[in-house]
């Protein structure tokens, strides 16, 4: 008696929910999930979650850069509250945001078009000396000073992916929400405006230890990845179920509709057709992926039929192709033939 392939069985459940043939995605999924992980999909109220390789389906993962859509959702809520303007210079918030050049806006930071480098300058060294926590030696004041110093009018308006920019935005959002300008202040603002109202209990800056999926160790270190004051760029944790719920909330407007504001700036990589606050766009799919030191994540949705897919896996570097097999598998599942309505 042959044992059924667990991945094929999981993919069959996803096919039922999405209403499409996903066999073409199987090779990338097998590559992405070789150390285990969670595959999930949702559409029209139906949800499927599968834990693979010994990983529980309700396990808590590092979300890494899948944090960025949550930061953008917080910005959207603060815009709704009148505490922030998408296109107003960030410096108008005053306080620690004074001195930022006028081209640095919430929208520019959320779409990587604010003219900032990928990381603070010191990360060139600390990526090696503090591999698991390269931003941990910085204070929030240091992070904002770095963003203020390196914002370039020559680069502004072009797409240039920036953890520094997303992290600086999160600190600005904490200030706009009348919270302390710190990682903790961002976490409180996010809970008050986004994760609390959406009942996303697992999404937080501190994971439940018993539910945390242990990241894969590397030659340079082990354990979760720290983001210091730049947690809004990659410091959240969460479950696949809550990621699917967040994706659904984006689609129905409960998490705002900033994702609809797609721009196509110069400098976009070939695999992207646009970028919106917190999201990449590849044709009909909005998505983001994340790479921590020992885990990888991806979340995407397809507005045409309300499909949402997430993939959380053990294993960080090395990457393969377009930021690796994880986003490739996600896009393969969401870019296939659309389901019949």
UniProtKB/TrEMBL annotation:
Residues 34-315 form the Beta-lactamase-related domain. It holds the Pfam family Beta-lactamase. Gene3D superfamilies: DD-peptidase/beta-lactamase superfamily (3.40.710.10). InterPro entries: Beta-lactam-related (IPR001466), Beta-lactam/transpept-like (IPR012338), Diverse_Enzym_Activities (IPR050789). This is Beta-lactamase family protein.
């Amino acid at each position: 008696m042959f044992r059924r392939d667990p991945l094929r069985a999981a993919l069959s459940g996803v096919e039922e929910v999405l209403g499409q043939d996903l066999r073409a995605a199987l090779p990338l999924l097998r590559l992405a999930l070789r150390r285990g992980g969670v595959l999930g999909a949702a559409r029209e109220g139906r949800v499927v979650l599968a834990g693979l390789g010994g990983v529980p389906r309700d396990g808590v993962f590092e979300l890494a850069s899948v944090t960025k859509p949550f930061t953008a959702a917080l910005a959207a809520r603060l815009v709704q509250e009148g505490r922030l303007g998408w296109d107003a210079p960030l410096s108008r918030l005053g306080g620690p945001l004074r001195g930022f050049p006028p081209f640095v806006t919430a929208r520019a930071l959320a779409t990587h078009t604010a003219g900032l480098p990928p990381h603070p300058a010191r990360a060139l060294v600390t990526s090696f000396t503090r591999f698991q926590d390269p931003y941990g030696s910085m204070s929030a004041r240091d992070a904002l000073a770095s963003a203020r110093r390196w914002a370039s009018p020559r680069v502004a308006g072009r797409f240039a992916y920036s953890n520094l920019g997303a992290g600086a935005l999160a600190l600005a959002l904490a200030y706009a929400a009348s919270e302390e300008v710190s990682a903790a202040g961002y976490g409180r603002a996010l809970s008050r405006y986004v994760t609390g109202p959406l009942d996303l209990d697992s999404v937080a800056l501190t994971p439940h230890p018993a539910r945390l999926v242990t990241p894969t160790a590397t030659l340079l270190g082990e354990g979760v990845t720290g983001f210091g004051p730049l947690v809004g760029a990659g410091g959240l944790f969460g479950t696949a179920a809550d990621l699917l719920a967040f994706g659904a909330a984006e689609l129905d407007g409960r998490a705002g509709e900033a994702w609809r504001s797609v721009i196509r700036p110069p400098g976009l990589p070939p695999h992207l057709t646009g970028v919106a606050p917190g999201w990449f766009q590849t044709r009909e799919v909005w998505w983001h992926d994340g790479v921590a030191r020992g885990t990888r994540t991806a979340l995407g949705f397809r507005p045409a039929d309300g499909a949402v897919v997430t993939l959380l896996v053990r294993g960080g570097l090395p990457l393969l192709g377009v930021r690796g097999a994880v986003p490739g598998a996600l896009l393969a599942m969401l870019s296939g033939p659309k389901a019949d309505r």
